């Protein structure tokens, strides 16, 4: 005796086979509801829609396979993009090339990615033109003994900065750090309005 008839859900939702020349399209908030996110994704449907609204045109997908690439303005800058998530198979190079073309059209000068994105495609990044820009080395020193103050250093006077001092803060930031690590005006303004964040200038 056979059981009741049933439908195989996987037959309806099985994605198309991945290929190297897919139909890449811009990922919008409307598409986010139907996108199958990687199980380790930092986003859910709601937060992804917000991300796409804040970074319009910087994320891509392949509708037939569900492969996708999520990018953003890195630290709210308009000249550096950050690739924050890449989920795909054979279509990954096409997604990356399409993004680079989009970024060049918009005047971006650099595209970066996070460590987890690097590890997800470590063998493929050189093939699409990526390489090491800067290596960050962290040092740690244990201060077991009390350090005597250096009497030769000049005394400093500190002043709390407000949004009215944004031009000064931006000037000091850009004069102090190399281009890659500059804060944008929008980023500094965001910092200065965060609770329990205080920005001082030393004179």
SSE string: HEHHEEEHEHEHHE
Spatial shape = elongated
Percentage of β-strand residues = 5-15%
**Cα Rg:** 23 Å
Query: What is the helix fraction of residues, given as a range?
Result: 25-40%
The whole-number mean of residue pLDDT values reads 87
Distance between the termini: 88 Å
Uncertain stretches: 4-13
Number of strands: 7
Structural class: alpha+beta
Main sheet: strands, sense, barrel: 5 strands, mixed
Biggest sheet, strands in spatial order?
Answer: 1-2-3-4-5
Number of helices: 7
Describe what you observe in this structure.
The protein has 203 residues and is an alpha+beta fold. The chain is 29% helix and 15% strand. The protein is built from seven helices and seven strands; from the N terminus they run αβααβββαβαβααβ. A five-stranded mixed sheet has the order 1-2-3-4-5, sandwiched between helices. Strands 6-7 form a two-stranded antiparallel sheet. The radius of gyration is 23 Å and the shape is elongated. The model is unreliable at 4-13 (pLDDT under 50).
């Amino acid at each position: 005796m056979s059981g009741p008839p049933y439908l195989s859900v996987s037959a309806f939702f099985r994605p198309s086979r991945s290929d190297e020349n897919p139909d890449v399209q811009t990922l919008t908030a409307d598409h986010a509801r139907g996108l199958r996110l990687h199980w380790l994704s930092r986003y859910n449907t709601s937060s992804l829609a917000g991300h796409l609204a804040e970074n319009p045109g910087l994320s891509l997908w392949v509708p037939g396979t569900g492969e996708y690439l999520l990018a953003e303005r890195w630290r709210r800058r308009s000249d550096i993009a950050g690739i924050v998530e890449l989920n795909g198979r054979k279509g990954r190079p096409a997604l990356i090339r399409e993004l680079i073309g989009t970024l060049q059209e918009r005047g971006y000068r650099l595209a970066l990615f996070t460590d987890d994105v690097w590890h997800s495609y470590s063998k493929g990044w050189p093939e699409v033109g990526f390489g090491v820009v800067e290596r960050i080395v962290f040092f740690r020193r244990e201060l077991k003994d009390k350090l005597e103050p250096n009497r030769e250093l000049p005394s400093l006077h500190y002043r709390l900065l407000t949004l009215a001092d944004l031009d000064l803060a931006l000037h000091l930031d850009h004069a102090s750090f190399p281009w890659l690590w500059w804060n944008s005006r929008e980023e500094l303004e965001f910092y200065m309005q965060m609770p329990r964040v205080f920005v001082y200038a030393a004179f």
